[in-house]
Amino acid sequence: MSATSKVPLKDGMEGFVSDWASDQRAFKGVPWGKAMMWIFLLSDTFIFSIFLIGYMTARWSTVEPWPNTSEVFALTVNGVSVPLLLIAIMTFILITSSGTMAMAVRSGYQKKRKQAAALLYLTAILGLSFVGMQAFEWSKLIEEGIRPWENPFGARQFGSIFFMVTGFHGFHVSVGVIFLFITARKVLRGDYDTGRRGFFTWQKGRYEIVETMGLYWHFVDLVWVFIFAFFYLW
Amino acid sequence: MAEEGQEHPISTYLWVWLLLFVLSAFSYAVDYVGFQGFTRWTLVLLFMFLKAYFICAVFMHMVWERMALVLGLFIPTFAIVVFIGIMGFESDYTQLSRKVFFDTGKPPTVYAVPHGKEHSKDHLGDEAH
């Protein structure tokens, strides 16, 4: 794509040094949009890290007992209390949506337009069900008297951190769902085959956009892995 | 230099998907079985890092990217480790000051029990920290 293509790229650590020292673009062989998405995701990693570190600080410094999440998030099925049932289902749904997303990226590059669109729609619907379950979980906790400033089961910070962390993650999922629907529609319409210009950026899109969308979606799943471990299981 | 997209066999994705399912089941089992203390934390962290690795490596195609991108994204995250260390010290110190200077001598507050269940004593409070 550029004149540099005559110079063979080095691999491994040598490649790392020469790419960064090349006095041109550091991320070679990567579409611009994808590199930008990665940099955005890095900054988002810092945001979520700060939330989780704030949670750690609050939990380690409080002198009040921390509620037992295993009991707080338990669901009663047929009279039996199953710990963290809803959270486990949400985890499996999000992983499944990550799997369908990965396959959508693949179908896109193979120009299987309808298959890619179907997988994207499926991913979006799975994401939507995740948000729905989170809304259910929120309403359940609010009903039990947990507020950002109050918690009948122990340390108050539990409430603030729960709503802040899962709320911010749920917001990410919701934004992802909206963009998944937009991308799915564009794929189905054949925008990335015909080079139809986008309604907002007025740029011609290619199937790389599906991969960039996928990066965001996998990141949302990745964040959930950490929230699940630190907030729900710790 | 072609800007190539990431295209890999579908079996790779399906295997990783299955693996993530199994790992999630394991981390859920940690809670279900009721491991506590050091065993619990080790297992939770182990399954968490394994899941995070496979999502990044395969679903986000990290293993196939150039080292410039991989390290450009990976190295900055060490700042997070440093920050965790700093705030860990800080929270210990804060808790100590609260215990030393704000202890009113009154009996501790009795909190409600979720769903009216009996507290399992080994998980009540977080005495380790």
Describe the structure.
- Chain A is mostly helical.
- Chain A has a single domain (32-233), classed as Cytochrome c oxidase, subunit III, four-helix bundle (Four Helix Bundle (Hemerythrin (Met), subunit A)), CATH 1.20.120.
- Chain A is 69% helix and 3% strand.
- Chain A has helices at residues 12-20, 32-61, 69-72, 85-109, 113-143, 157-189, 191-194, 208-233, and strands at 75-77, 80-82.
- A two-stranded antiparallel ribbon of chain A has the order 1-2.
- Chain B has 2 domains: 8-64; 67-103.
- Chain B has helices at residues 10-33, 37-59, 67-74, 78-101.
- Chains A and B meet through helix 1, helix 2, helix 3, helix 4 and helix 8 of A and helix 1, helix 2, helix 3 and helix 4 of B.
CATH top level of chain A? Answer: Mainly Alpha
In sequence order, what are the helices and strands of chain B, one letter per element? HHHH
Distance between the termini of chain B: 54 Å
Provide the CATH topology of chain A. Answer: Four Helix Bundle (Hemerythrin (Met), subunit A)
Biggest sheet layout of chain A: 2 strands, antiparallel
Largest β-sheet summary of chain B: none
Rg of chain B is 22 Å
Strand content of chain A: under 5%
What share of the residues of chain B lie within helices?
55-70%
Strand order in space, largest sheet of chain A: 1-2
Unreliable parts of chain B = 119-129
